[in-house]
Design a protein that fits this description.
By secondary structure, this protein is α+β, with helices and mostly antiparallel strands. The protein folds into 2 domains: 33 residues, no CATH class; 86 residues, Lipocalin (Beta Barrel). It is 27% helix and 43% strand. It is built from 2 helices and 8 strands. It has an 8-stranded antiparallel beta barrel. A hairpin with a 2-residue loop joins strand 4 and strand 5. The radius of gyration is 21 Å and the shape is globular. The termini are far apart. The relative contact order is 0.17. It comes from Onishia taeanensis. This is MORN repeat protein. Keywords: Signal.
Length: 127
């Protein structure tokens, strides 16, 4: 009968725990990384954003033109970026959100709470 030393399962478990901790740390660090205003502008300029805000029934489809204008279905506005944020002005107060982008997915947050999310699609899907 072959026996496995007790240390092997402990080392395997320890390795799995350390690997999990490293993955969580890197995911957390990526979420905490602020995008520059230029990086956000590059990602959204010339793209449509289809998504919704946190309120029920708040689905939207907007096009972010390279000139800083927003074109939605039946409305217009302006967009700007700054360090880690994208700001929206629909003719009243300007509202800014922290932005995270992962591939085509973009999430808008205020004070760490998700306020909106959706997908960036190249080109104008509004018109």
């Amino acid at each position: 009968m072959h026996t496995i030393p007790l240390r092997a399962p402990i080392l395997t478990t320890l390795s799995a725990v350390l690997l999990s901790a490293a993955m969580l740390t890197s995911a957390s660090a990526a979420a905490d990384t602020k995008l520059s205003g230029e990086a956000i502008a590059s990602a959204v300029s010339g793209h449509s954003y289809q998504g919704s805000m946190s309120a029920p029934g708040s689905a939207f489809n907007e096009y972010y033109a390279p000139d800083g204008t927003i074109h939605g279905e039946g409305y217009t506005g302006n967009w700007t970026t700054r360090e880690g944020e994208m700001c929206f002005d629909y003719g009243e107060d300007t509202t800014c959100y922290q932005v995270s982008i992962d591939g085509p997915s973009m999430v808008l947050r205020q004070d760490g709470t998700i306020k909106g999310n959706g997908m960036l699609i190249e080109g104008n899907t509004v018109n």
